[in-house]
Design brief:
single chain; about 190 residues; alpha/beta; 5-stranded parallel beta sheet; 5 helices
Length: about 190
Amino acid sequence: MPDTTDKIVAKILAIDETPDNLVSISALLKMMIPGCRVLTAESGREGIATALKEQPDVILLDIHMPEMDGFEVCKRLKSDPRTDLVPVIILTALQTGSHHRVRALEMGADAFLTKPVNESELAAQVKVMLRIKAAEDRLRDENLRLEALVEQRVKELTTATEQLTIETDERKTVQKTLDETETRFRTMIE
């Protein structure tokens, strides 16, 4: 089965305080994932604002940044319902210990890579995250479609139930009238 992820047109947000890193990551992603659109931000605050505005498909996030580190950025992105489903891949050269990996995952990161990053591994991780996000998006869309279908069926059933109640009441009234008429005729005959 051919790999179709190369044909996905994706928005990828890279957040890193070092402009050279952003240029390198952008060039690498554009080479490894043709057609992708790479957005960049040089601070956590700028990255969060860009994520909210652009709704990227994947976020690459450095841990070491001034003002707000990558852990806090990840935590904020994952706690906001507008960005909580966007996969976050942590990239770091300085904080590479297992406790840093655990902390990143606890903050909601979906993957953790150390710099210098292997180009193929980065591209593979991004492609995996794109596939996961696409599958989640399809699942969410299908759930919305099914919810709408269930809502429509409930309305139809409610209308049918109301109609049956009306018909039942009418039949009871007709039956009561028939019983009264029959009683009158019996009385007359007797």
